[in-house]
Amino acid sequence: MDDYLKKPFTYKRFQEAILKLQQKASANETPAPAPAPLPASGLADTDFLFIKAEDKLIKLKKDDILFLESMRDYVKFVTPARNYITYSTLKNMEEKLIGPNFLKVHRSYIVNINKIDDIRGNTIYLLGNQIPIGKGHKEEVASRLNIL
To answer: How far is CA 6 from the centre of its chain?
Structure first.
């Protein structure tokens, strides 16, 4: 066995596993075509996204998003100005928000790490909102936020 991914895994960890396999293939001198870079979602290249809420498409700047909260088949986008609820899953939104600014900290929450005010124990505080850190996400949160 060369490598394995343990859920939940990040896009970065996925890329590391692919890189290990590529290095092993080149070490064995087996000619294998180099895979094309894995495309992130098309929305990851922009600084905004459109969500369907209130019977219309609403343009949200990614930088305005404080956090996302799963509500079963719906996702609540929380911004400083107001909240929007759209019909989608948190997993789908996680794929669209792939990048350095967003981090899944709990099975029901994705936060914008640039908006975090402070962390006390297993709770993240952003503009008066309290977000729990899930047990399975502690290690990823610590590494991404450079917690000493």
So the answer is: 16
